[in-house]
């Protein structure tokens, strides 16, 4: 069953969807069914509409254009010179697991921070001797750096919870081992914490090769830009457990990270939003991180992300709180929207091919709009975040969207039938 599910179920659903899309004019079927006495014409009209590429392009370009404008507005409103270089104590936590080759990235970049009152703590798993040895060397090389062994091993959430309990810092910052925090990141985040409870900085996959660049453009189109619109409409600010600074009082109010959750960061995000905490999303001085280098790692990483997202959203709506609760509605819309968008994305390439045969000018204009917005965002990142050039991976955006849609379909079906997904760690080159 596992093999059948993994290799046939998701593609089978996509084939079924394409078959429906190719059936032609649903009005004929609607009239036939109505003739038999069952009035379901409107649902068929809806199906006929959602597979119309004109609708796809208009919706996609409108969403991305609005998101880009919100991004530019946020950049304009953010003061990149707002920096606090000393004052309250900050402890930056770096949980590591089998990452001795890459942990120097976050440690050395944080050690170069312009913020004075900063301690950097590497949190190691007791059975991970290579990482412990590397942490020992880094602690010896940098005065600000120390390492501890987690007393609650087995998960990132457990390591962070234990480190937070043992810390007496005013502010807790968290980073992954492969991230490269800008020297001014902590100072910029501390300036934001003068008026907010949480300050989260962008985390960008470094576009170093074909797969890595495809992951970067996927991040722009499916995560970074849409989140700007989602935050404006739903008020849902992402917190996460990396490239983020959090007031200690936050943990007293909403509790620690859920050590049972596959994506503890999304669970924590929902709880912070339910508590009406002030979350500041910062765009300047972002973190670079290592992207997946192979399609296998890319797939496995996203299966874990989407699986965690689906389970967290389901958990939050399963309580059936008041329908007027914004957090409840955010979870509900996220859960339903994830599957709906994933289903549509999964047929991106074949739908584009079919549409191009019938309406080549329409497809050309639609792609031009999407590519234009994407490359404009990349140009802004070249200026504000330090990325370089444009490469050619943006041409593969339809492929990336199709693959991502397949991941979503597989994950949702897996979740419904009770297929468990475990932690997946990608290979990092160091």
From TrEMBL:
An example of a Gene Ontology cellular component annotation for this protein is: membrane
Keyword Ribonucleoprotein on this protein? no
Report keywords, A-Z.
Glycosyltransferase, Membrane, Transferase, Transmembrane, Transmembrane helix
Kindly list any coiled-coil regions of this protein: none
Where does it live in the cell?
Answer: Membrane
The record's annotation in Pfam families points to:
Glyco_tranf_2_3
Instruction: Please report the record's description of how this protein sits within the membrane.
Output: Multi-pass membrane protein
TM segments? 6-23, 28-47, 53-73, 327-345, 392-417
Q: Does the keyword Membrane apply?
A: yes
One Gene Ontology MF term: glycosyltransferase activity
Q: What is this protein called?
A: Family 2 glycosyl transferase
- What is the native source organism of this protein? Natrialba taiwanensis DSM 12281
């Amino acid at each position: 069953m596992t093999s059948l599910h993994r290799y046939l179920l998701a593609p089978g659903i996509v084939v079924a969807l394409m078959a429906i899309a190719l059936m032609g004019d649903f009005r004929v079927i609607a009239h036939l069914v109505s003739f038999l006495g069952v009035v379901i014409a409107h649902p068929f009209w809806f199906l006929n509409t959602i597979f119309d590429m004109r609708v796809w392009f208009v919706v996609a370009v409108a969403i991305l254009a609005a998101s880009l404008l919100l991004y530019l507005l946020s950049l304009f409103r953010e003061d990149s010179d707002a920096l606090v270089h000393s004052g309250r104590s900050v402890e930056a936590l770096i949980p590591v697991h089998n990452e001795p080759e890459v942990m120097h990235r976050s440690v050395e970049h944080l050690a170069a921070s312009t913020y004075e009152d900063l301690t950097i703590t590497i949190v190691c798993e007791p059975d991970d001797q290579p990482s412990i040895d590397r942490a020992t060397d880094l602690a010896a090389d940098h005065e600000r750096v120390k390492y501890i062994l987690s007393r609650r091993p087995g998960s990132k959430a457990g390591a962070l919870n234990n480190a937070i309990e043992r810390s007496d810092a005013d502010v807790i910052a968290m980073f992954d081992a492969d991230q490269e925090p800008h020297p001014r990141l902590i100072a910029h985040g501390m300036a934001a914490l003068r008026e907010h409870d949480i300050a989260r900085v962008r985390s960008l996959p470094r576009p170093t090769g074909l797969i890595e660049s495809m992951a970067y453009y996927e991040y722009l189109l499916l995560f970074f830009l849409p989140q700007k619109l989602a935050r404006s409409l739903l008020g849902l600010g992402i917190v996460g457990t990396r490239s983020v600074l959090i007031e200690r009082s936050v943990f007293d109010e909403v509790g620690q990270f859920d050590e049972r959750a596959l994506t503890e960061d999304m669970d924590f995000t929902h709880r912070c939003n339910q508590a009406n905490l002030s979350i500041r999303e910062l765009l300047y001085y972002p973190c670079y991180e290592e992207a997946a280098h192979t399609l296998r790692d890319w797939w496995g990483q996203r299966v874990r992300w989407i699986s965690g997202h689906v389970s967290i959203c389901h958990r939050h709506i399963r309580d059936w709180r008041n329908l007027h609760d914004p957090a409840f509605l955010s979870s509900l819309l996220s859960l339903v929207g994830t599957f709906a968008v994933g289903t549509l994305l999964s047929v991106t390439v074949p739908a584009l091919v079919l549409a191009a045969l019938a309406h080549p000018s329409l497809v050309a204009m639609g792609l031009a709009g999407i590519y234009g917005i994407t490359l404009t965002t990349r140009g802004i990142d070249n200026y504000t975040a330090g990325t370089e050039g444009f490469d050619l991976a943006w041409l593969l955006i339809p492929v990336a969207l199709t693959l991502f849609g397949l991941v979503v379909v597989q994950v949702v079906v897996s979740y419904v039938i009770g297929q468990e997904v475990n932690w997946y760690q990608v290979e990092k080159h160091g």
